[in-house]
Design a protein that fits this description.
single chain, mainly beta, about 40% strand
Length: about 170
């Protein structure tokens, strides 16, 4: 709610419910309840044409937990604000178990109700939690899996490393 007028909200969340991607303009009209004044804005929502995987680092330590997030772009390179609620298949290409996807619902990271619904439907959401298992290299890809739209990201190569500290057994004196 707006601080000056608690009956009025200063923002709104809009959800597009179409199953057919289109390049037409969607008109959003807001009407002020008391005065009847209307605000009209046009928005063009293009379909997702490419994906990228966002990580904090391309290296993860054994035992470390990290969140990976997918970001979507339209054909003009504009980034989508969120991909929350969409269904994804995350794939880790590896010869051994270097990296594993953790159960997002058991994670300490907060997941919205939309993400929980996706996770409970047999897919992954736009965010996954991974854990480094053992030293090695693996490739991660993600595929958007919606009714009329399948888009795959390029491979992201990740390195899982085991950090170690060396302590000399004697002291050198100069």
């Amino acid at each position: 709610p707006d601080e000056t007028n608690p009956r009025c909200h200063s923002s709104a969340v809009l959800t597009v419910l179409t199953k057919n991607p289109s390049q037409s303009i969607i008109w959003i009209i807001a009407k002020e309840k008391d005065s009847g004044q209307k605000l009209r804005v046009g928005a063009r929502i293009l379909p997702i044409s490419s994906l990228s995987i966002q990580t904090r680092s391309r290296t993860i330590d054994v035992g470390e937990v990290q969140a990976f997030e997918v970001q979507g772009y339209d054909s003009s390179g504009n980034v989508f604000t969120t991909l929350e609620g969409l269904r994804f298949n995350w794939k880790i290409g590896q010869t051994q178990s270097y990296l594993e996807i953790q159960d997002s619902l058991q994670s300490t990271k907060h997941f919205s109700d939309y993400r929980k619904i996706v996770e409970n439907s047999g897919f992954h959401s736009d965010i996954i939690i991974v854990k480094g298992i053992k030293s090695g290299r693996c490739d991660v890809t993600v595929t958007l899996n919606e009714d009329n739209l399948i888009v795959e990201s390029p491979n992201v190569q990740l390195h899982v490393i085991q950090q170690f500290i060396i302590f000399p057994s004697f002291h050198l004196v100069h």
